[in-house]
Amino acid sequence: MCVSSSEGPAMEGLKWVRFPKRCDYTDYIYMEKNNWDACMFCPKRDILFMGFGLLGNFNGHDMTYIVNWKIGDEEFSEDHEISYSNDELDPEKKSFTIDIRTLGEKYVVVEKDKEIIVRAKIKMDGDDSSKRKVFYGHSGYQNHYSKIEG
Asked: How far apart, in whole angstroms, are the C-alpha atoms of residue 43 and residue 22?
């Protein structure tokens, strides 16, 4: 990802994938529409937080999510509504990327060992459970986390 910033030259971001070799694209889970699904990260070095990704709908539906994030002891960001069409999914990773800068937010400087919590829930009308099915993600290999070297 490379974007221009009013604060300086173009900024490139490295995309870190939690389980780069252990995703299960043959199974699904149901995301919640009333409760948050969340994940916490704790970087091992100072980083710029520019966004995060979500896995797409297992049945190929276009999706709308409510997302927010929290860095360290700060309050959660405001809720943001994110919509994507199934055509926008990365065909290999079955995911899409949320760049917080496109939501009117600035990137966030995150110090080493500070917690980053990202949350999402489905925004939908009705009870069509097929619209809450998303690709599963990891297959229980919690000791196979990826690392960004350098």
From this structure: 20
